[in-house]
What we know:
23 strands, globular, eight-stranded mixed beta sheet, FAD/NAD(P)-binding domain, 13 helices, alpha/beta
Amino acid sequence: MRDAFDTDVLIVGAGPVGLSMALALRYLGVGCIVVEKHGSPMDFPRGRGITVRTMELMRRWGVADTLRQAGLPTSEAAVFIGENLLAPKFDRFVRPAPDPSDTSPETPLICFQNLTENILRDAAKAAGADIRYGWELTDAIDEHDVVTAAATDTGSGAQHRLRAPWMVAADGTRSSIRSALGIDRHGPGVVTHAVSIVIDAELRERTADRPSILYRLGGLPGGTLTPMDNGRRQWGLIYEYEPATDPVETFTNVRLRQLARKAIGDPEIPIEIVGHRFWESTALVADEFRRGRIFLAGDAAHVTTPIGGLGMNCGIGDVDNLSWKLAAVISGWAGESLLDTYDQERRPVAERTVDASLGRARPPAPVDGLVLGASYESAAVCPDGTVAAEPADMLGDYVPIARPGHRAPHLWLDDTRATSTLDFFGDTFVLLTTAAGRAWRPIAREVAGLPLRFHEIDDPQWPDLYGIDPLGAVLVRPDGYVAWRAPTRADDSANNLLQFLQALA
């Protein structure tokens, strides 16, 4: 039957989530085809924020440095509040960057989504992903042992059939696949209506004393400005409106120019309106993230408001969680029940993320507790009886902990700060011990077929950080989350590890 497949995984949608899924699957040696109804990557600037956790994944997939070269300087990572962009009186709030030695080998980044998409596309293609722009999915049928999809080449009109054992729907907020499956969503729904206006105006010199990634404008209720390129020549104005009293047809080019000049604060400044789009700020979560052989990811599964810049990052978290599980099933070392843990683990995280986007994540509020402290409970995690940490601010405060279900904490392992514990993870399970704990190795090797590596860590800080003594051990999943932990080598701990590994395999 496998010979009849066109690929291992069919991905629908070539936004940042679909392209990240392609990149992650190729990193794991899994074949994939991506179909995208649009003829090219997005050319309209949208989301910009890339969280520290997403940058850790980009580090794993080899694109972190390229993204940094394309992103805004870290000196501009601030929030401006004033009457307008050029107001003589304003407040500027700089969020202190976390010390990478404490939390991560990476730091957050501001990189415009259209640039991010191009970088991800190029990396995925270089890794061997088959990306087909201008192919619109028209039908998909789960035939229990295969997904058969129909697609139309929007350029030529040619009809195509694609067969794959698994499909990932990353086709956005209005996902046709989710709708066809009849999967409902819950949550507040549409929160506000907004128009995004792209403005061309030479403002670099005039904003040199107020560099920022976000300008909140008191003189234009519901208005924000963001620089859309490093030259600060193009600007994105977001203006919230009420359709009942401010209908779409009133947004003529004359009015768009008036709004732009009011936001800037100079009625005479030469400007050009490059384009504009109307959209709805929405907060919803799908009731299911899996239906048979089809999985929802990114905005197809959950959509946040723009507050906090969490939406794309939550979708890339879906990729991190689902990609290794698909690879495990496709390669044959795990049963299909492992795929059930995708919904079990990611949907609660999506719920918390959507809730945070309703206001609590508004910059400059920190979100490290959400993006680094998210935890999982499922059959792919073996509880060790410990209690999760409860920081005062669950959204903002991250407490490093190697409790099962949590992201394995970062620790630099060399004086040059080139290698992190996080660099051990990505394509296999990893059993971490000290040199004194190497007796764990023959036990883990009893599970045939499970991709498993061993690392001995001699850093004296590591056992305390990971909550073990020198004879203990920690098993980390391919996505960098702790699967199992034994604080010490007790009589039954070896059997406990063996049973857990056998259940996975």
